[in-house]
Give the backbone structure.
Amino acid sequence: MKKAKRRTPERIVETALRLFNEFGEPNVTTTVIADEMNISPGNLYYHYRNKDEIVNALFADYEREIDALLTLRDTAPREAEDIWFYLHLLFEIIWKYRFLYRDINDLLTRNRRVETHFSRILAHKQQTAVALCNGLAASGVLEATPDEVAALAVNITLVTTFWLSFEHARQPRKPPDIGRGIYQVMSLAAPWLRGPARQLLQQLSQAYI
């Protein structure tokens, strides 16, 4: 059975995502996207009136995916290995839509949807970080006061949001190792980790320091 042919709007969004990630959103015009697809600019404008509409479509996909991950079902992960896996899923989404993180300051100044929704996502990240820390505390592998957990959650949100930009500035021509980003996040909790979680972090340090 033949695979269904992708519709033009889907192809436009997929092509734009690839180009935005590779060259940066400010450096990619609708004409470049149309040329890459071998379609006329008029065909592209039939589906998306301007580049902001394409950005909004991509942001909606990103928002749906990251909200689904950040919304913890039942109970939060309570073991260090589970946190590692969870952070890996988070960084995979960040990498998939990496132009949003690398170009966020530019996008915030001119895209109203990104401006209003990205701050909500940051708040959601922070709430989830608190829940993850509380889950570790409940299992006895993290000992911290509520104030320390709150501060730790802010730092986790900060690193997960800007680590990719830091790595890109440090080595712009080399794809980052997501494992290093996960280690940087988990190392923030090092002073409060106990038992197996502490041992896992020490093992990770041998690979990523």
Remarks:
- The chain has two domains: 1-49, 59-208.
- The chain has a mean pLDDT of 91.
